Amino acid sequence: MNIAEQYEMYRPLLFSIAYRLLGSVSDAEDIVQETFVAWTERDGDRSVTNTKSYLCRIASNLCADRIRKQTKQRETYIGPWLPDPLVEGRGGPEDICIRRDTISTAYLLLLLQLSEVERIIFVLREAFGFSYEEIAALTGKSVANCRQIFHRARRGMPRSTEEETPTSTQTVRAHQIVRQFMQSFESGDISRVMELLTADVSLIMDGGGKVKAALNPILTMERVIAFFTGTASKLPEGMVYHHATVNGLPGFLFMIGETVHYVLSMELEGNRISRFYMTVNPDKLAHLNMAKTSPS
Fold first, then answer.
1. What is the pLDDT of residues 228-254, one digit of tens each?
2. 20 to 30 A Cα–Cα from 223, which one of 7, 109, 142, 143?
3. For the purposes of burial, counting CB atoms within 10 Å of the CB of 284, is it exposed (0-12), middle (13-18) or buried (19 or more)?
4. Which residues does the UniProt record annotate as the domain RNA polymerase sigma factor 70 region 4 type (predicted)?
């Protein structure tokens, strides 16, 4: 198998690992490219007996370096930081991530609590099902150490993502609820809007200092509704929204023509929306505007 064929075969896996570790589409794509540059330099090396393992090891090491850089960058980041939104059906790398439950915004934000080593071991085990023997080979640590690090990281995370994965019926219902929210808001039915929100609903907005955005999470139902009401009156002419699935969550793309300006996604508790994630930083939307649009 030549390099081009290996690239097509392993790119989805490498991108999926890197995105979960970094929360950045551009960084994940860079990791894939850098991994194959390194692999090309080793082409023909018979000491490499497992190409997949070798590529994952290179990618993981590259990600560890990026994680350390990102940690320093976030210390000076303006306002809340959210991972780049992945929107299904836009023909980009978002369509090749493997498990929806491990690309949710909440999940990716929780991963930030882990060190680079903990994050790599946790993601390889939790999201991709690598054995401890495989992870040990990738990280250069012992099997026992990998197992210990995983369980330590697991204690800092919520219950198993397998248990939290919504059923198809729950997913359909969640999308129905967010559509009802938008329709009720547009029609001015605030009482119905309030019925669809939890009392402690919050909004996290990522502008990165590039555009005007709330610098702190907006808390409580009253303040969130006030924010959306104020924002709706200031939307640019020609702005329309399209329903979408964002990081496995129901949401919307706000667009002018073919350009995405805002991405909004929503977490639910039961039949009510408990959290909004809004990305307006144009740098984090660039990959969506380079992909072909197929909004619903």
1. 999 988 888 999 999 999 998 999 999
2. 109
3. buried
4. 107-155
